[in-house]
Amino acid sequence: MASLSFDPAAHFYDATRGYPDDVALKIAHAIDEAAQATSQTAYLEIGVGTGRIAQPLASLGHTYTGVDISEKMLAQLETKLLAAGWQKRARTEYPWGSFTDEQTSLHPSVQRFERFEKSQTQPPSSLRLVVSDIEQLPFVDHSFDAVVAVHIFHLIDGWERSLQEVVRVLRSGGKLLQCWDAYDASAIGEVVNAQWRGMVQDLGGSTSRPGVSTHSVKHWLKERGFQTQDERALAWSQQVIPRQAIDYIAQRYWSSSWQIPDDIFAVSIERLWAWAHEYFGPQIDVPQVQERHFFISITQL
Asked: For the chain, which terminal residue's Cβ has fewer other Cβ atoms within 10 angstroms, N or C?
């Protein structure tokens, strides 16, 4: 199964997976604390996407690099950066290879952005966006102090090669920070998704992705002598409407639906709607509150 590009999700990614601004800033500070970052810390985020993590974290005055195979996701991030006052450097001003951590044997597409704070209370922020496969990172060995990986390894067919690359580009003592969202099992979205996954399986389909779970990644790291510590960094409440949770599945907004054959998918959605109307009744259009959690898994090399 090939790794998944999020090109199909670029135009709705932030609407379905984004964070409120205040939560995004708290997440940025939590990651910064987990990395024990200073103004000199060099960050790399693999699978940077639309920058829901990168933009607030880089804005804290960091040198930040993001890589992704989806040019459409990176285009969304560029639009957000420019709207937030970041300055884009001309490609001809700093072509690939202008900095010592950039492998000149490779020639990926790169865009560079800077932001200067008016208050002068923190150093300028820089953000380098690179179109690259995570299985072959275009950087020299030991280039970064921290690698951020948010909801990524379950999407990568060559996840072991990707982890080898992460280990290669991290400096001694550097940290891999795996991050993910989670909900209580009783949350509306979890209940709906569990029902739908069971229906797909009953029809002979699969909602699996090409990569592996965070648990498998931690096991791989442990086998190589790297210890991992998990922490729940943040929790917040959000409203969810049951009908919307079902509609998100029906619109194929989640990557778990992208490789299901159309005929199986259509029947699964018919069954899901029938179940939902019986299960929720008139409450199907009533907003309900659920807890959303953000976790960080810290592995030091």
From this structure: N
